[in-house]
């Protein structure tokens, strides 16, 4: 197995795949190593919403990054379709964020005010107006923000397309291969040791989602990334036309072009356990029924769970590990890794090819103290 490339990327989720394909595109030789199957963890579990305005609760660098990433999506999926033949089903019908109680109405109006004052194209709809757009919504819905430019995608198809794109661009792909440890000479990276053998590279990018901390801990670097389980389900939309993503305080519904409606999601701390529990799934379904009561008659299809890579400040961690040469992090995308994948790939490729970190300043690892307890 011993062989050499410019870059090794650890982790074949949406973040690792996007980075690997982008680096190959700018002329690097890249090896991507995944311990399971490509995309098989958080990335396949996601609902596929591309919704920075729904997700981020205040103006700032994370919202700016989300908006920029959303803008990249249209061309990204077009390029992927041309290169792979896969249509990732980007839907641009927009997102409705609904309020059903006094408190939610207050929260919605505050959100509307700051987003409007930042210049975003959003509309505040009355209960009647929103019922016109989505007749199956609960009569309890009093108001909604309609955000016409937010979107959703079929993340399963996106992952398939990225794997093909990576192959087209000659990325060396290893599935079912776990990185056991990082290889280094002093504080300079030299490669990785996997359960199938060793690979050499002077630059290693760790994009291992919720598992990133385990990999870095072995070299005395303590990355504040931890798993937050999301339980989620799918129902058949056959009898229930729903044309927008609907998001409320009790959950969300994401209609897909393949006739599924994805309903989600819990946020629970269960370590690395990604079972679906009776409590979790029933909460998700109850939440969805409170927003769209007719969903109670929809055939149930499936429930599953994934581990979101959360960070201490809920911002991703992107860029070089301080005091190390050739060791870069791209992790901690928490609830928004699908949304943030294209911009993450661009920023990391920019850094790797030019050493430039200016555009990812707010997300650099050096905002945390990364020295592990063993080393202190
Ligand atoms: C229920 C749910 C709903 C979500 N909905 C959305 C949404 O609507 N929109 C959105 O933008 N985001 C959403 N997210 C968040 C999104 O899924 C994540 O932010 C994103 O998938 C993180 O991608 P990743 O590549 O960093 O992690 P992962 O997809 O977890 O990939 C990391 C990979 O690293 C591999 N790995 C770990 N250790 C090793 C090792 N030692 N050697 C080799 N490989 C290793 C793992 O096997 C894994 O495949 C959701 C998440 C969940 C759970």
From TrEMBL:
Catalytic activity: glycine + O2 + H2O = glyoxylate + H2O2 + NH4(+)
Gene3D superfamilies noted in UniProt: D-Amino Acid Oxidase, subunit A, domain 2, FAD/NAD(P)-binding domain
InterPro entries hit by this protein: FAD-dep_OxRdtase (IPR006076), FAD/NAD-bd_sf (IPR036188), Gly_oxidase_ThiO (IPR012727)
Pathway(s) annotated for this protein in UniProt: Cofactor biosynthesis; thiamine diphosphate biosynthesis
GO biological process, one term: thiamine biosynthetic process
Name of the protein this chain belongs to: glycine oxidase
GO cellular component: cytoplasm
Molecular function via GO: flavin adenine dinucleotide binding; glycine oxidase activity
Limits of the FAD dependent oxidoreductase domain: 6-350
Keyword annotations of the record: Oxidoreductase, Thiamine biosynthesis
A Pfam family of this chain: DAO
EC number: 1.4.3.19
Keyword Oxidoreductase attributed: yes
């Amino acid at each position: 197995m011993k062989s050499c490339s410019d870059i090794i990327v650890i982790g074949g989720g949406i973040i690792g795949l996007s980075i690997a394909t982008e680096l190959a595109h700018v002329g690097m030789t890249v090896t991507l190593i995944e311990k399971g199957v490509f995309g098989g963890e958080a990335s396949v579990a996601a609902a596929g919403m591309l919704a920075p305005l729904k997700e981020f609760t205040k103006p700032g660098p994370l919202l700016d990054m989300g908006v920029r990433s959303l803008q990249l999506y249209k061309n990204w999926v077009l390029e992927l379709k041309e290169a792979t033949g896969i249509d990732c089903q980007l839907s641009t019908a927009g997102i409705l964020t609904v309020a059903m109680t006094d408190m939610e109405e207050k929260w919605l109006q505050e959100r509307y005010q700051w987003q409007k004052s930042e210049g975003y194209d959003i509309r505040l709809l009355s209960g009647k107006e929103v019922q016109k757009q989505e007749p199956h919504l609960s009569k309890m819905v009093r108001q909604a923000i309609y955000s016409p430019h937010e979107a959703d995608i079929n993340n399963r198809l996106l992952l398939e397309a990225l794997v093909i794109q990576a192959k087209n661009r000659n990325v060396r792909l290893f599935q079912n291969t776990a990185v056991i440890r990082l290889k280094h000479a002093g504080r300079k990276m030299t490669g990785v040791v996997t359960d199938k053998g060793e690979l050499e590279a002077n630059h290693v990018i760790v994009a291992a989602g919720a598992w990133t901390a385990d990999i870095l801990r072995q070299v005395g670097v303590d990355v504040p990334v931890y798993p937050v389980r999301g339980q989620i389900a799918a129902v058949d939309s056959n009898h229930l036309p729903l044309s927008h993503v609907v998001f409320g305080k009790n959950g969300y519904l994401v209609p897909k072009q393949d006739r599924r409606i994805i309903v989600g999601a819990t946020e629970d701390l269960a370590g690395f356990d990604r079972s679906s529990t009776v409590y979790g799934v029933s909460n998700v379904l109850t939440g969805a029924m409170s927003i769209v009561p007719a969903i109670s008659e929809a055939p149930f299809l499936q429930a599953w769970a994934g581990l979101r890579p959360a960070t201490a400040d809920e911002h991703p961690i992107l860029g070089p590990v301080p005091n190390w040469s050739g060791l870069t992090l791209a992790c901690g995308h928490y609830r928004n890794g699908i949304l943030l994948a294209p911009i993450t790939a661009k920023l990391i490729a920019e850094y790797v090819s030019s050493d430039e970190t200016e555009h990812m300043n707010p997300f650099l690892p050096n905002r945390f103290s990364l020295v592990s307890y063993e080393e202190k």
